[in-house]
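Dig into what follows:

_____
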Amino acid sequence: MGWLIASVSTTATPATFIPALVVTGAGLGCGFAVVMTVGMRGIAPQVAGAASGVLNTFRQVGGAIGGAIAVALLQSRLSLIGPGQVAAHDVGYANTFVGAFRAALVVPVALLLLAALSCLLLKPRTAPPR
């Protein structure tokens, strides 16, 4: 995601984003499998179907809320632009859009870092007595 944020500029083309998006997609693909495995690790087989449904529901809701937050941040930053600056060739508008887009991408990265740091607070599981 950092690479994607660094790639955003007024001169970027669609090809500029391809390498960063490929790396991001591969990382997310690998990460989701681990998260699902850890989330389902201690579930009894009798309730595995229900637990899987709840886990996927919360994952989808979290993604929708995260997307809504990013779009709301982008819209709030773009709303500061006056109506006369909306022309596509206006350099001020392009720079404002790039700044707003960068800010909208930084929020999920910051939340991911916060979540990663919170993992340090988890206590290791003790082995059950035999």
User: Anything to note?
Assistant: The longest helix spans residues 48-78. The chain has one domain: 2-121. The helical segments are 2-7, 14-39, 48-78, 91-118. The two ends are 45 Å apart (CA to CA).
